[in-house]
Amino acid sequence: MGRHPVTPLATLGTHEPVARPGTDLRWSRFLAATIAEGPGLRSALWVQGCSVHCPGCFNPQLWAEIGGRVENTARLADRLVTDALNAGARGITLLGGEPFDQAAALGSIAQAFRASGLTVMTFSGYPLHLLTQWAKNRPDIAQLLGATDLLIDGPYLRDQPDAGRPWLGSTNQGIRALTPVYAAEVAQIEREGGLDRLEVRIHPDGRVDVNGWANDAALDELLHDLGPRQDRPGTKARLP
């Protein structure tokens, strides 16, 4: 497999994503219930494919636009909403990968969650001011942005780690309440900060799944006896 081109830091997240059909979604992982990927108990969907390519990315295996699973968007949305409701989730978090690289498909999924009374949190390496600008001529971006209650925006900069706010990898990133749903929680985080969470699932066959956020030292200590250690760049890691 060839190496991904290196993107200059100054241009990270500044190139408008290519518009893609929304009939299918390429995705990597889904959790029906987690407390590590946003406020409250929520589902989480990791998409496959990212064109931002932040150096030190926590999930470089999700950059490639191949791999993962490809499913019909409408059928997938129905199943994910059902799974989320059955798990008692408050909403869904969309991350990856880059959600706005598949804005049409994820916009439909986000709207399905909103129509079922659930909230939507979206992570993006693109800054909000550019997403808003692009949305004027891109109905797909406008749809996903309009169906998002809480947005984490901006590229990850590994030399600016953020240890004071939950869910953010670097201090340049923003946490934006796009609707009133999470406005009070965002205001509290901006005033007082917050803590990250890390979840470890050990399956009967011995597989270990990890998701959430931790600094490298804490992660190494936690996983020391659970399986092979992996090198993880940066000082704070989001794990799929």
From TrEMBL:
Gene3D superfamilies: Aldolase class I (3.20.20.70). Keywords: 4Fe-4S, Iron, Iron-sulfur, Metal-binding, S-adenosyl-L-methionine. One of its GO terms (molecular function) is metal ion binding. CDD domains: Radical_SAM. SUPFAM superfamilies: Radical SAM enzymes. Its cofactor is [4Fe-4S] cluster. PANTHER family: ANAEROBIC RIBONUCLEOSIDE-TRIPHOSPHATE REDUCTASE-ACTIVATING PROTEIN, PYRUVATE FORMATE-LYASE-ACTIVATING ENZYME. This is Radical SAM protein.
